[in-house]
Amino acid sequence: MPDAAPLARVAQPDIAAEALAGLLGKRKSLPPKLFYDAEGCRLFERITELPEYYLTRAERALLAAQAPEIAAELPAGAALVEYGASSEEKAATLLDALAAGGRQAACYVPIDLADGALVALAERMRATHPALPVHPVVADFLHPLILPEATLPPRIGFFPGSTIGNLDPDAARGFLRAARGALGGGARFLLGVDLRKSPAVLVPAYDDAAGVTAAFNRNVLVRLNREAGADFEPAAFDHRAVWNAAEGRIEMHLVSRREQVVHLAGRLIRFAAGESIHTENSYKYTPQGVRLLAAAAGWRHRRLWTDPEGLFSLHLLSAGEPQ
To answer: Mind listing the pLDDT tens digit for each residue in 79-96?
Structure first.
């Protein structure tokens, strides 16, 4: 069994400063990465099990069905670098398919902001895959990132869960471009992307009947109370999910139920009744939209896989000049 690699950390921006940058703007907002403290991670895992939230089930089934074919397209002996690795389940499916096809990965590099979740993930992987070196990195992958020295090329980037949809198009292009640089020559990139579909399917996935997504959304206020000196009353904000057809995205908001004043890091923030905090976007793509996005970031689109219902897609990219 390989020795446990230390938990690599990259310096993070101050939570209070990031929150204030959005809350003091003309249209109040918060970065969605603030969702993922320990409670946020727990709530998100519950969301993935909800009947309305089709994304995780569709992606898991698609990946399980296509993993041998995907693995055959990937280089042998590569480092698997997973961005936003809150759970190892999908990566394990891919790693097992690589091993079954004689293309055993050199190591696994999960990257995420939630250090506690990463420690637990790494421990589970070392128990289930004892021969595989695991090098967890605590970092915001939207900021400049240097991979651990042990992760030599070739490398495979893995970004499941349609997390790319949480980024606006400019940020998505920037992320893919930076990932191409970090992963280096000969890289492949497997990208999970939710597809556009009827709002009748989309909206309930972000506003479930049990209220789990509402609790997940409000938990960001609880975190700011604890970590940024805020005094939000989470119950004074309603969860709202809407489909913005013009932008091709689901939006999540926290809407103030009344006029109120909140303090955060010594600053005063006023809310009018009905005023919202925009907490998340989830862009939905067409396959052609993904191809154009990848090309603009310098990747070549190699393969596309979708489930029979056309709910979700997996895209294999390779480093190359825009097509």
So the answer is: 999 999 988 999 999 999
d(CA 107, CA 155): 10
CA pair distance 297, 137, nearest whole angstrom: 24
Q: Report residue 195's pLDDT band, with 50, 70 and 90 as the boundaries.
A: very high
Strands 107-112 and 137-138 come out as: parallel
Beta pairing partners, 156: 80, 188
Q: What is the pTM of this model?
A: 0.91
pLDDT single digits (tens) 31-73? 998 998 889 989 999 999 999 999 999 999 999 999 999 999 9
φ/ψ (deg, to 5) at 288: -65, -35
For residue 89, give the 3-state DSSP assignment. Answer: helix
- 124-157 exposure pattern, b = at least 16 Cβ within 10 A, e = fewer: ebbeebeebbbbbbbbbbeeebebbeebeebbbb
- The closest alpha carbon to 172, from 278, 288, 294, 31, belongs to 294
Locate tokens 């990195």: which residue?
A: 137
